[in-house]
Amino acid sequence: MGHRRIVFLLVLLLPAVLSIRPQALHSYFYLEAEKCRLAGDISSAAELYQHCLDINPDASEAVYGLSLVQFYLHNDSLGLQMLQRATELDPRNPWYLETLANYYLNKRETDAVIPVLERLAALQKRRSDVLSQLAMLYHTVGDTDKAIEALERIERLEGKSIALSVEKFSLHMERKEKAEAFAELQALCDEFPHDMNCKVVVGNQYQQVGEMQKAWEVYEEVRQREPSNARLQLALLSYWQATHDEARFRQLRDSLLYDSASPSQLRVTLMRDYIDRSQRDTTLRPLLTQAFDSVLSMPQKDAELLTLKAAYQTYTKADKQDVAETMRRILDVEPGNELAMSHLLQYYASENNLTAMEDICRRGVNYHPEELAYSFYLAVALGQQEQTAEAREALLQGLRARNEDSSPQLLSDMYALLGDLYARQELTEQAFEAYDSALVYVEDNISCLNNYAYYLSLRGERLDEAEEMSYRTLKAEPRNVTYLDTYAWILFIKKDYAGARIYMERVVSPEATDQDVLQDERLQGNIIEHAGDVYAMCGLTDEALRLWRLAVQKGDDTCTKSIRKKIKQKKYVK
């Protein structure tokens, strides 16, 4: 609501509101202000919050609301002042403190945010997320005492954990307090005496600081009790690598890789390390390929390893057929894997494998009906196989599944293709409706404009509109042979033969030899025939006959049924 409307409303309500208690009056205007702010009516919200403060200058909620308005208007300085005042007026309100803390965090004002978070942590004592933020900030400013204290406060709330103990270990080591650091890890093990993962963590930290003998003693203890512990296996791999014992490293890695009982994620981790090593030492690449073949010869519970192989093949520019085969195997394991479907769709499209395209798109429609690209390319594949009715149904099914997140360009292309399919079956009204819908979504859909204009010209309807649409395509792509042909043909239909010849000569140059015309892949038989028609109506019969004969020689079945009659009668025939 605007300023005048608010003032007018206040005047009308004045006799009634004078009898209402100030607190009730304040509450009424505050709620109205909140409604306006949440509805995006910032100007009205600001006026109503201010009216609340006129009634009660110390109303913290109105001060807070007005601070949000100022931040929205990018008046950060004024917004901060009001937010600080709101926290002073109501120091126990966690929302105000959290908003103030987030402001300081976004501005990277570390010294300012710490006391605010401390107030919030004191107010909400079980907020471990706030304490974790404090630990990080204290570490940032170099106050490791306070950082450790914040972590210990989390421990008192949640109990010991590997993550907290390792973080405290790192802080003690940073302070060169080695005894305290390892005492922290020992306390973790004492807390969980039967959890060998804690022991492995202790060994890892010994390894990190270079105490390899102590690390080995810890690992050996774990091995005696839990020889198949997954964390231990990774730790030992790191240990053998750090001690440059390549033979033991490879022996352990390979035993884990080729053990069918090894968890899939462990094998993925090992293969990623193998890939990293092969990038540094290219002589390992043949061995890596063999490792992939061996690991993937075993039954796969998921597609993690196959996906990793596909990524590696793509990175190393492997043969496209090999990548496609890996993608097909991914679909065998995970039939709805969208990465594999998307890749295979592109691959089959580049190979013009319409049957395979159709299969992938049907799979995509079944597993991901919200992804309209599958419906679109299914229609493309079906249309190119002359299954027009099925192609139309695929598009209509996809369009029924569209939502507000659907791509306007894709929707426009779908309607444009639908128009082409209707036109193919001479369903004129439906074709025009589909083309119009396509242009609603994208008014400059060039392909749609061209086909719409050409179809209008074939029917001899709305030729001025068709010419305007076709001209827009030429402005976008002035060298496009198809668009030039459409525009020239529209001029031809309008009996502007001289104009048509000007544009048609940009399609088929008068200097082009017969061989040039026949070898130009852009020139289909119907385009060459159009050029002959134009020359015929311009009185250039010899050139027309030459082009008509060349159109027949093209042999692509795009010429009209009357072309041989044109050649025989040596004149243009409709």
Structural account:
With 574 residues, this protein is mainly α. The two termini are 66 Å apart. The N terminus is likely disordered. Helix content is 76%, strand content 0%. The chain has 33 helices and no strands. 35% of the residues are buried. Among the domains are: 90 residues, Serine Threonine Protein Phosphatase 5, Tetratricopeptide repeat; 67 residues.
Summarize the structure.
With 574 residues, this protein is mainly alpha-helical.
Mean of pLDDT: 91
How helix-rich are the residues, as a percent range?
over 70%
In this structure, how is the largest beta sheet organized?
A: none
**CATH class descriptor of the domain at 1-90:** Mainly Alpha
SS-based class: mainly alpha
Termini gap: 66 Å
Give me the Rg, rounded: 37 Å
CATH architecture of the domain at 1-90: Alpha Horseshoe
Unreliable residue runs: 1-20
Which outline best applies?
Answer: flat
Q: What is the fourth-level CATH superfamily of the domain at 1-90?
A: Tetratricopeptide repeat domain
Bin the strand percentage. Answer: under 5%
Could you tell me the CATH topology label of the domain at 1-90.
Serine Threonine Protein Phosphatase 5, Tetratricopeptide repeat
Give the number of helices.
33
